[in-house]
Protein backbone atom coordinates (compact mmCIF):
# COMPACT_ATOMS: atom_id res chain seq x y z
CA UNK A 1 0.00 0.00 0.00
CA UNK A 2 1.45 3.34 -1.00
CA UNK A 3 0.14 6.57 0.40
CA UNK A 4 0.30 9.49 -1.97
CA UNK A 5 -0.25 13.17 -1.35
CA UNK A 6 -3.60 14.58 -2.27
CA UNK A 7 -4.13 16.10 -5.71
CA UNK A 8 -5.14 19.23 -3.85
CA UNK A 9 -1.42 19.82 -3.32
CA UNK A 10 -0.73 19.88 -7.08
CA UNK A 11 0.91 23.19 -7.89
CA UNK A 12 1.27 24.20 -4.24
CA UNK A 13 4.82 25.48 -3.61
CA UNK A 14 6.44 26.79 -0.48
CA UNK A 15 10.14 27.19 -1.16
CA UNK A 16 11.15 29.12 1.97
CA UNK A 17 10.92 25.82 3.80
CA UNK A 18 11.62 23.72 0.66
CA UNK A 19 14.19 21.19 -0.65
CA UNK A 20 17.22 23.40 -0.04
CA UNK A 21 16.43 23.08 3.67
CA UNK A 22 16.98 19.34 3.50
CA UNK A 23 20.42 19.90 2.04
CA UNK A 24 21.18 22.48 4.75
CA UNK A 25 20.07 20.00 7.43
CA UNK A 26 22.28 17.31 5.90
CA UNK A 27 25.27 19.69 5.98
CA UNK A 28 24.63 20.47 9.63
CA UNK A 29 24.31 16.80 10.46
CA UNK A 30 27.69 16.31 8.78
CA UNK A 31 29.16 18.85 11.22
CA UNK A 32 29.15 22.04 9.11
CA UNK A 33 27.82 25.28 10.46
CA UNK A 34 25.27 26.78 8.04
CA UNK A 35 24.38 30.46 8.08
CA UNK A 36 20.61 30.31 7.70
CA UNK A 37 19.45 33.45 5.97
CA UNK A 38 16.21 31.89 4.77
CA UNK A 39 13.48 32.49 7.38
CA UNK A 40 12.55 35.77 9.01
CA UNK A 41 12.95 34.42 12.52
CA UNK A 42 14.44 37.16 14.73
CA UNK A 43 15.12 34.74 17.61
CA UNK A 44 17.89 33.05 15.58
CA UNK A 45 19.89 36.28 15.43
CA UNK A 46 20.11 37.33 19.06
CA UNK A 47 16.81 39.19 19.31
CA UNK A 48 15.25 38.47 22.67
CA UNK A 49 11.55 38.46 23.46
CA UNK A 50 10.53 41.72 25.17
CA UNK A 51 10.58 41.05 28.91
CA UNK A 52 7.08 42.37 29.67
CA UNK A 53 5.55 40.01 27.09
CA UNK A 54 7.27 36.98 28.60
CA UNK A 55 6.38 38.03 32.15
CA UNK A 56 2.75 38.58 31.23
CA UNK A 57 2.53 35.17 29.60
CA UNK A 58 4.07 33.53 32.66
CA UNK A 59 1.63 35.40 34.92
CA UNK A 60 -1.35 34.31 32.82
CA UNK A 61 -0.22 30.73 32.26
CA UNK A 62 -2.07 29.21 35.26
CA UNK A 63 -5.32 30.61 33.84
CA UNK A 64 -4.60 29.81 30.20
CA UNK A 65 -5.11 26.07 30.17
CA UNK A 66 -8.64 26.04 28.76
CA UNK A 67 -9.99 26.63 25.27
CA UNK A 68 -10.89 30.26 24.68
CA UNK A 69 -13.61 31.79 22.52
CA UNK A 70 -12.75 30.75 18.95
CA UNK A 71 -12.26 34.39 17.96
CA UNK A 72 -9.87 34.89 20.87
CA UNK A 73 -9.85 36.26 24.42
CA UNK A 74 -11.68 39.52 24.89
CA UNK A 75 -8.82 41.46 26.51
CA UNK A 76 -6.53 40.79 23.53
CA UNK A 77 -9.23 41.50 20.94
CA UNK A 78 -9.99 44.76 22.74
CA UNK A 79 -6.31 45.74 22.62
CA UNK A 80 -6.25 45.00 18.86
CA UNK A 81 -9.51 46.89 18.21
CA UNK A 82 -8.19 49.91 20.12
CA UNK A 83 -4.96 49.84 18.14
CA UNK A 84 -6.82 50.02 14.84
CA UNK A 85 -9.19 52.71 16.13
CA UNK A 86 -6.11 54.72 17.05
CA UNK A 87 -4.77 54.19 13.51
CA UNK A 88 -7.94 55.75 12.13
CA UNK A 89 -9.81 52.62 11.07
CA UNK A 90 -13.44 53.55 11.52
CA UNK A 91 -15.80 51.63 13.78
CA UNK A 92 -13.59 48.63 14.65
CA UNK A 93 -14.97 46.65 17.60
CA UNK A 94 -13.95 43.42 19.31
CA UNK A 95 -16.40 41.60 17.02
CA UNK A 96 -14.25 42.52 14.03
CA UNK A 97 -11.14 40.84 15.42
CA UNK A 98 -10.06 37.19 15.12
CA UNK A 99 -6.91 35.89 16.81
CA UNK A 100 -4.88 33.08 15.29
CA UNK A 101 -1.82 30.89 15.63
CA UNK A 102 0.22 33.43 13.71
CA UNK A 103 -0.84 35.37 10.65
CA UNK A 104 -0.20 32.19 8.63
CA UNK A 105 -3.20 30.42 10.12
CA UNK A 106 -5.44 33.44 9.61
CA UNK A 107 -4.34 33.80 5.97
CA UNK A 108 -5.26 30.15 5.43
CA UNK A 109 -8.68 30.56 7.06
CA UNK A 110 -9.48 33.85 5.35
CA UNK A 111 -8.65 32.52 1.87
CA UNK A 112 -10.34 29.15 2.38
CA UNK A 113 -13.54 30.87 3.46
CA UNK A 114 -13.52 33.09 0.35
CA UNK A 115 -12.27 31.17 -2.66
CA UNK A 116 -14.41 28.85 -4.82
CA UNK A 117 -12.82 26.53 -7.38
CA UNK A 118 -11.60 28.67 -10.26
CA UNK A 119 -11.84 31.99 -8.41
CA UNK A 120 -8.94 34.35 -8.92
CA UNK A 121 -7.02 36.32 -6.33
CA UNK A 122 -4.54 39.01 -7.32
CA UNK A 123 -1.25 38.38 -5.52
CA UNK A 124 1.94 40.42 -5.87
CA UNK A 125 5.00 39.13 -7.71
CA UNK A 126 7.25 38.80 -5.86
CA UNK A 127 5.12 37.68 -2.91
CA UNK A 128 5.31 36.08 0.50
CA UNK A 129 4.59 32.67 -1.04
CA UNK A 130 2.07 31.49 1.52
CA UNK A 131 -0.53 33.65 -0.24
CA UNK A 132 -0.07 31.91 -3.60
CA UNK A 133 0.13 28.49 -1.94
CA UNK A 134 -3.09 28.95 0.03
CA UNK A 135 -5.05 30.33 -2.92
CA UNK A 136 -3.95 27.28 -4.93
CA UNK A 137 -4.74 24.88 -2.10
CA UNK A 138 -8.22 26.42 -1.88
CA UNK A 139 -8.90 25.57 -5.53
CA UNK A 140 -8.37 29.15 -6.69
CA UNK A 141 -5.91 30.72 -9.06
CA UNK A 142 -3.28 33.16 -7.85
CA UNK A 143 -2.92 35.76 -10.57
CA UNK A 144 0.31 37.68 -10.08
CA UNK A 145 0.46 41.42 -10.59
CA UNK A 146 3.85 42.99 -11.13
CA UNK A 147 5.67 45.01 -8.54
CA UNK A 148 8.04 47.27 -10.44
CA UNK A 149 11.67 47.15 -9.38
CA UNK A 150 12.41 50.32 -11.33
CA UNK A 151 9.70 52.12 -9.32
CA UNK A 152 10.95 51.13 -5.85
CA UNK A 153 9.06 47.86 -6.14
CA UNK A 154 5.67 49.56 -5.98
CA UNK A 155 2.74 47.66 -7.50
CA UNK A 156 2.08 48.56 -11.11
CA UNK A 157 -1.57 49.64 -10.90
CA UNK A 158 -2.17 49.41 -14.65
CA UNK A 159 -0.85 45.87 -14.66
CA UNK A 160 -3.01 45.05 -11.64
CA UNK A 161 -6.15 46.38 -13.29
CA UNK A 162 -5.42 44.57 -16.55
CA UNK A 163 -5.51 41.25 -14.66
CA UNK A 164 -8.95 41.72 -13.10
CA UNK A 165 -11.58 39.39 -14.57
CA UNK A 166 -15.11 38.43 -13.58
CA UNK A 167 -13.58 35.63 -11.48
CA UNK A 168 -11.43 37.99 -9.39
CA UNK A 169 -12.45 38.04 -5.74
CA UNK A 170 -9.72 39.89 -3.88
CA UNK A 171 -6.42 41.75 -4.05
CA UNK A 172 -3.58 40.82 -1.72
CA UNK A 173 -1.48 43.78 -0.66
CA UNK A 174 1.71 43.07 1.31
CA UNK A 175 2.84 46.38 2.77
CA UNK A 176 5.60 46.73 3.95
CA UNK A 177 6.61 44.04 1.56
CA UNK A 178 8.33 40.74 2.02
CA UNK A 179 10.62 40.10 0.10
CA UNK A 180 11.30 43.55 -1.41
CA UNK A 181 11.18 45.83 1.66
CA UNK A 182 8.96 48.29 -0.25
CA UNK A 183 6.66 50.57 1.76
CA UNK A 184 3.90 51.85 -0.46
CA UNK A 185 3.17 55.56 -0.81
CA UNK A 186 -0.34 56.76 0.00
CA UNK A 187 -1.25 57.19 -3.70
CA UNK A 188 -0.48 53.55 -4.41
CA UNK A 189 -2.60 52.26 -1.52
CA UNK A 190 -5.38 54.62 -2.61
CA UNK A 191 -5.02 53.41 -6.20
CA UNK A 192 -5.44 49.79 -5.10
CA UNK A 193 -8.47 50.73 -2.99
CA UNK A 194 -9.94 52.49 -5.98
CA UNK A 195 -9.61 49.33 -8.08
CA UNK A 196 -11.25 47.29 -5.30
CA UNK A 197 -14.09 49.82 -5.10
CA UNK A 198 -14.69 49.90 -8.85
CA UNK A 199 -14.53 46.15 -9.34
CA UNK A 200 -16.20 45.06 -6.07
CA UNK A 201 -13.14 43.28 -4.64
CA UNK A 202 -12.03 42.54 -1.11
CA UNK A 203 -8.60 43.73 0.04
CA UNK A 204 -6.45 41.26 1.96
CA UNK A 205 -3.89 43.55 3.58
CA UNK A 206 -0.90 41.70 5.02
CA UNK A 207 0.60 44.38 7.25
CA UNK A 208 2.71 42.21 9.55
CA UNK A 209 5.67 44.60 9.09
CA UNK A 210 3.68 47.81 9.62
CA UNK A 211 5.92 48.93 12.50
CA UNK A 212 9.21 47.94 10.87
CA UNK A 213 9.96 51.13 8.97
CA UNK A 214 13.25 52.93 8.26
CA UNK A 215 14.13 56.53 7.33
CA UNK A 216 10.94 58.20 8.62
CA UNK A 217 8.80 56.09 6.31
CA UNK A 218 5.08 56.26 7.10
CA UNK A 219 2.87 53.21 6.80
CA UNK A 220 -0.49 53.79 5.10
CA UNK A 221 -2.96 51.21 6.28
CA UNK A 222 -5.43 50.14 3.60
CA UNK A 223 -8.21 49.86 6.19
CA UNK A 224 -7.73 53.45 7.37
CA UNK A 225 -7.69 54.85 3.83
CA UNK A 226 -10.61 52.77 2.56
CA UNK A 227 -13.53 52.88 5.03
CA UNK A 228 -15.90 52.03 2.16
CA UNK A 229 -14.03 48.89 1.06
CA UNK A 230 -14.12 45.51 2.83
CA UNK A 231 -10.55 45.13 4.08
CA UNK A 232 -9.10 42.26 6.09
CA UNK A 233 -5.93 43.45 7.83
CA UNK A 234 -3.46 40.87 9.10
CA UNK A 235 -0.71 41.45 11.64
CA UNK A 236 0.79 39.88 14.73
CA UNK A 237 3.64 39.46 17.17
CA UNK A 238 6.17 37.47 15.13
CA UNK A 239 8.14 40.35 13.66
CA UNK A 240 7.50 43.65 15.45
CA UNK A 241 7.72 41.93 18.87
CA UNK A 242 10.21 39.27 17.71
CA UNK A 243 8.31 36.30 19.20
CA UNK A 244 7.60 34.25 16.06
CA UNK A 245 7.61 31.01 18.04
CA UNK A 246 4.69 32.10 20.20
CA UNK A 247 2.48 31.91 17.06
CA UNK A 248 0.26 34.88 17.72
CA UNK A 249 -1.51 37.05 15.17
CA UNK A 250 -4.74 38.84 14.42
CA UNK A 251 -7.10 39.64 11.60
CA UNK A 252 -9.30 42.74 11.64
CA UNK A 253 -12.30 43.20 9.35
CA UNK A 254 -13.24 46.76 8.37
CA UNK A 255 -15.42 48.56 5.83
CA UNK A 256 -19.01 47.70 4.87
CA UNK A 257 -19.21 44.37 6.70
CA UNK A 258 -22.93 44.11 5.84
CA UNK A 259 -21.75 43.06 2.34
CA UNK A 260 -19.64 40.31 3.88
CA UNK A 261 -22.04 38.78 6.40
CA UNK A 262 -22.15 35.39 4.77
CA UNK A 263 -18.39 35.35 4.24
CA UNK A 264 -17.76 36.25 7.88
CA UNK A 265 -20.04 33.42 9.00
CA UNK A 266 -17.85 31.08 6.96
CA UNK A 267 -14.71 32.56 8.51
CA UNK A 268 -16.21 32.11 11.97
CA UNK A 269 -17.02 28.50 11.16
CA UNK A 270 -13.38 27.84 10.20
CA UNK A 271 -12.28 29.60 13.39
CA UNK A 272 -14.57 27.33 15.43
CA UNK A 273 -13.31 24.21 13.62
CA UNK A 274 -9.79 24.84 14.89
CA UNK A 275 -11.31 25.60 18.32
CA UNK A 276 -9.09 28.54 19.25
CA UNK A 277 -5.58 29.95 18.99
CA UNK A 278 -2.99 28.96 21.57
CA UNK A 279 -4.28 30.69 24.71
CA UNK A 280 -1.02 31.80 26.43
CA UNK A 281 0.09 33.46 23.20
CA UNK A 282 -3.21 35.32 23.00
CA UNK A 283 -2.47 36.83 26.40
CA UNK A 284 0.82 38.11 25.04
CA UNK A 285 -1.04 40.43 22.66
CA UNK A 286 -2.33 42.90 25.24
CA UNK A 287 1.09 43.08 26.90
CA UNK A 288 2.77 43.64 23.52
CA UNK A 289 0.43 46.33 22.23
CA UNK A 290 0.27 48.15 25.56
CA UNK A 291 3.98 47.89 26.40
CA UNK A 292 7.12 49.71 25.35
CA UNK A 293 7.40 49.70 21.56
CA UNK A 294 11.08 48.74 21.43
CA UNK A 295 10.86 48.20 17.67
CA UNK A 296 11.11 51.99 17.29
CA UNK A 297 14.57 52.01 18.87
CA UNK A 298 15.68 49.10 16.70
CA UNK A 299 14.61 50.84 13.48
CA UNK A 300 15.70 54.41 14.39
CA UNK A 301 19.10 55.78 13.26
CA UNK A 302 21.74 53.92 15.29
CA UNK A 303 19.29 51.10 15.99
CA UNK A 304 20.32 47.52 15.28
CA UNK A 305 17.82 46.76 12.50
CA UNK A 306 18.47 50.04 10.78
CA UNK A 307 22.24 49.57 10.84
CA UNK A 308 21.85 46.04 9.46
CA UNK A 309 19.54 47.19 6.68
CA UNK A 310 22.06 49.92 5.75
CA UNK A 311 25.05 47.58 5.77
CA UNK A 312 23.30 44.84 3.79
CA UNK A 313 22.13 47.30 1.16
CA UNK A 314 25.56 48.94 0.80
CA UNK A 315 27.47 45.66 0.61
CA UNK A 316 25.05 44.05 -1.84
CA UNK A 317 25.42 47.00 -4.19
CA UNK A 318 29.21 46.68 -4.02
CA UNK A 319 29.07 43.23 -5.66
CA UNK A 320 29.76 43.57 -9.41
CA UNK A 321 26.61 42.65 -11.34
CA UNK A 322 24.35 42.92 -8.28
CA UNK A 323 21.98 45.80 -7.56
CA UNK A 324 19.52 46.21 -4.76
CA UNK A 325 16.68 48.66 -4.21
CA UNK A 326 16.97 50.10 -0.70
CA UNK A 327 14.48 48.38 1.60
CA UNK A 328 12.28 50.95 3.34
CA UNK A 329 10.79 48.49 5.80
CA UNK A 330 10.58 44.82 6.90
CA UNK A 331 13.53 42.47 7.43
CA UNK A 332 14.77 41.56 3.95
CA UNK A 333 16.63 42.70 0.85
CA UNK A 334 15.81 41.36 -2.63
CA UNK A 335 18.86 41.99 -4.84
CA UNK A 336 18.99 41.51 -8.58
CA UNK A 337 21.76 39.55 -10.26
CA UNK A 338 22.31 41.07 -13.69
CA UNK A 339 21.90 38.23 -16.22
CA UNK A 340 24.34 39.98 -18.56
CA UNK A 341 27.07 39.63 -15.92
CA UNK A 342 26.02 36.35 -14.26
CA UNK A 343 23.75 34.36 -16.56
CA UNK A 344 21.87 32.22 -14.06
CA UNK A 345 19.25 30.00 -15.64
CA UNK A 346 18.19 28.06 -12.55
CA UNK A 347 18.13 30.10 -9.36
CA UNK A 348 17.33 27.13 -7.13
CA UNK A 349 20.52 25.53 -8.42
CA UNK A 350 22.35 28.80 -7.65
CA UNK A 351 21.06 28.78 -4.08
CA UNK A 352 22.01 25.14 -3.67
CA UNK A 353 25.51 25.73 -5.08
CA UNK A 354 25.97 28.71 -2.76
CA UNK A 355 24.88 26.57 0.17
CA UNK A 356 27.23 23.73 -0.71
CA UNK A 357 30.23 25.98 -1.32
CA UNK A 358 29.81 28.76 1.25
CA UNK A 359 27.39 27.17 3.75
CA UNK A 360 25.11 30.19 3.38
CA UNK A 361 21.41 29.62 2.81
CA UNK A 362 19.36 32.27 1.00
CA UNK A 363 16.09 31.86 -0.92
CA UNK A 364 15.85 32.02 -4.71
CA UNK A 365 13.65 34.76 -6.22
CA UNK A 366 11.44 32.27 -8.03
CA UNK A 367 10.51 30.93 -4.58
CA UNK A 368 8.59 34.20 -4.19
CA UNK A 369 6.76 33.70 -7.47
CA UNK A 370 9.13 36.04 -9.26
CA UNK A 371 9.10 34.93 -12.89
CA UNK A 372 12.82 35.18 -13.75
CA UNK A 373 15.83 33.44 -12.14
CA UNK A 374 17.62 36.75 -11.43
CA UNK A 375 16.92 37.58 -7.76
CA UNK A 376 17.45 36.15 -4.30
CA UNK A 377 16.27 37.17 -0.87
CA UNK A 378 18.56 37.75 2.06
CA UNK A 379 17.55 38.57 5.65
CA UNK A 380 18.70 41.78 7.29
CA UNK A 381 18.40 40.16 10.73
CA UNK A 382 22.05 39.12 11.41
CA UNK A 383 24.45 41.55 13.10
CA UNK A 384 25.89 44.04 10.62
CA UNK A 385 29.40 42.53 10.70
CA UNK A 386 28.01 39.05 10.08
CA UNK A 387 25.96 40.39 7.17
CA UNK A 388 29.00 42.12 5.72
CA UNK A 389 31.05 38.96 5.91
CA UNK A 390 28.24 36.80 4.44
CA UNK A 391 27.61 39.23 1.58
CA UNK A 392 31.37 39.40 0.92
CA UNK A 393 31.38 35.62 0.60
CA UNK A 394 28.33 35.68 -1.71
CA UNK A 395 30.17 38.24 -3.88
CA UNK A 396 33.31 36.11 -4.10
CA UNK A 397 31.21 33.03 -4.86
CA UNK A 398 29.35 34.83 -7.64
CA UNK A 399 32.59 36.11 -9.19
CA UNK A 400 33.67 32.56 -9.99
CA UNK A 401 30.23 31.10 -10.60
CA UNK A 402 29.10 29.75 -13.96
CA UNK A 403 26.02 27.64 -14.64
CA UNK A 404 26.50 25.09 -17.37
N1 LIG B 1 3.00 37.60 6.19
C1 LIG B 1 4.24 37.94 5.78
C2 LIG B 1 4.38 38.99 4.74
C3 LIG B 1 5.35 37.31 6.34
O1 LIG B 1 6.57 37.67 5.91
C4 LIG B 1 5.18 36.31 7.32
C5 LIG B 1 6.34 35.59 7.89
O2 LIG B 1 7.44 35.67 7.43
C6 LIG B 1 3.88 35.98 7.70
C7 LIG B 1 2.82 36.65 7.12
C8 LIG B 1 3.59 34.89 8.70
O3 LIG B 1 3.75 35.33 10.00
P1 LIG B 1 3.30 34.51 11.28
O4 LIG B 1 4.53 34.17 12.03
O5 LIG B 1 2.43 35.47 12.05
O6 LIG B 1 2.53 33.32 10.83
TrEMBL record:
The enzyme's E.C. designation: 2.6.1.2
Cofactor: pyridoxal 5'-phosphate
Protein family (similarity comment): Belongs to the class-I pyridoxal-phosphate-dependent aminotransferase family.
Cited SUPFAM superfamilies: PLP-dependent transferases
Cell membrane keyword on record: no
Name this protein carries in UniProt: alanine transaminase
Top-level division of the source organism's lineage: Bacteria
Keyword line: Aminotransferase, Pyridoxal phosphate, Transferase
TM region positions: none
Species, as recorded: Streptomyces evansiae
GO molecular function: L-alanine:2-oxoglutarate aminotransferase activity
Record carries keyword Transferase: yes
Aminotransferase class I/classII large domain boundaries: 34-392
Amino acid sequence: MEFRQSNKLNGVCYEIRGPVIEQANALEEAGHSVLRLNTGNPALFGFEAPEEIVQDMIRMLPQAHGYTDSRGVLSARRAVAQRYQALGVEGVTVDDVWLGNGVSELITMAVQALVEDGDEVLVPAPDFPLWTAVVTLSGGKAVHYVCDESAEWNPDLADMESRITDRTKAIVLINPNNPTGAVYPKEIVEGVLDLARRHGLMILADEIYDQILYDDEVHHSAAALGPDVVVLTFSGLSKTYRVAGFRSGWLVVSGPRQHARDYLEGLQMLASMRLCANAPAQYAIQAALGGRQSIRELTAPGGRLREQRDRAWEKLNEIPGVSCVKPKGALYAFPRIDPAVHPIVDDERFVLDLLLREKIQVVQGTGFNWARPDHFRILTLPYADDLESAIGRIGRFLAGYRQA
